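Tutorial handout. Part one gives the primary structure; part two gives the three-dimensional structure as tokens.
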Amino acid sequence: MERTSKEKVLKKVRKALIDQSPELFPGLDFTKNIYNLPDDSDQGLDIAFAAQFTANDGKFIFCEDATAFVSAFAAIAKENNWKNIHTLEPTVQALLKKVGIAYTSLDSEMEQMDAGITYCEFLIARSGSIMLSSRQVSGRRMAAYPPAHIVIGYANQLVMHVQEALNGVKKRYASLPSLITTITGPSRTADIEKTLILGAHGPKELYVFLLDKDISE
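Part two.
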């Protein structure tokens, strides 16, 4: 009786498990890090993050406190003629209101926004990536809707590896968020005639403002 295709495949799998090929590279260390990591004695996580982030076309601004952030953000907003600034973060709203920078938080105006401001979960130095989750006040949409995405991060959110960031998210929430994602630079694609296009599937510009002090202080 002729065997079915499934039985034939399973027979080959069993045979492969029994007659295993000799190890081609004995003694290979699969736990060793294959990436070139910055030397902590020479530079901190902030410098390592900034180097990788800007290499991926991100725009990095270091600010010591809320005053420095407002000054830098206002200058960039004026330079780019951002009229519709959107944020759902209460502390950011309070700061912008305090210094007289107009903003909106209405869902109906999200599609017309020029720039959106959010916080982040972590900043990953090795790849220059930003980790976001659906448990943040800004939710899922603010990472995809605004033409310019402004992320506020703090020095204590800097980690070297994505695994450290994931561990931090696990500790922060009783249950994991339904969405955990990382962003590395502005949205881009080269699918059409191999021409690089920025902003194809999300923000065309990505800014990170790294602060030492909480803006609510």
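Part three, for discussion. DSSP finds five helices and eleven strands in the chain. The helical segments are 5-18, 45-55, 66-80, 90-99, 162-172.
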